[in-house]
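Please, structure for the following, as tokens.
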Amino acid sequence: MPDTTALKGTDAPATAVDAPPATDAGPAPGKPRSLWSDAWHDLRRNPLFIISMVLILLLAVMAIFPSLFTSASPRDANLAEHYLQHPKWGNFFAPDWLGYDVQGRSIYARVVYGARASITVGVVVTIAVTITGLVIGMIAGYFGGWIDTILSRITDVFFGVPFIVGAMVILTSFEERSVWVVILSMAFLGWTSIARVARGSVITIKQADYVVAAKALGASTTRILTRHILPNAIAPVIVVATIALGGYIAAEATLSFLGIGLAEPTVSWGIDVSAAKDQLRNAPYVLVIPSVMVSITVLSFLMFGDAVRNALDPKMR
């Protein structure tokens, strides 16, 4: 009779009972970036942003600390020796590097000191119109009804006034046109675009679930506007403001060129362009150099605004 005793372990399959569980699932996903951190991540890799920031920082340092760039005074004039003296290109950063204007003043010194007035006007006007437009747009968009109707019609009235023409009318009523007079006249007319953008953003955001939930929980209107609506509506406003900043600098130069904006003894690129317009044939550098500085400054802020728009606007990704 055959032996039926099973041979223990002869063909027994290997068991995996004691094998450790698989752990090769990869690292746990990190916390998702916010809109601002994601925008900063994109901006750091954008050459347009880097170039514009370098130029803006250089212009800001020039405006705040002009003595770091030249020891010459922009108001010292010597007609007898320096009348329309041509530039000495090899003598870099000396008072005569870029030549002298029709009054015998150093063009290089006036270029350096002129940055202060132009950038001050552009930055302060931008801050003023951003705050004004944001407040008006948020109130109109959040409350709606007759409040929205009144504020929207007021915005339309100001929007219909040509910016340069309106600023000329306001400035001609002042005998002394200082930097702050120019700032107030431009800020009085320039808030309409930001108000429209802010109103549209608030109308969209106030219908979101988190805003409805905050209202249901009894949150005050001020808290809803400042804690829930403002942080989510500010991005398109910042984009419009950064792009408009370069336009305000160009507007200041235009008004000064027309003789309506800043006036002597203020040092401004627009004033220098206006004073040199009759010397285009015999001394074109007197007109070209301050004009180039205006163009570089405006272009820097426009590039900065475009980079910010591309980073904050999801449609541009």
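The mean pLDDT is 83. The domain at 107-316 is CATH 1.10.3720.10 (MetI-like fold).
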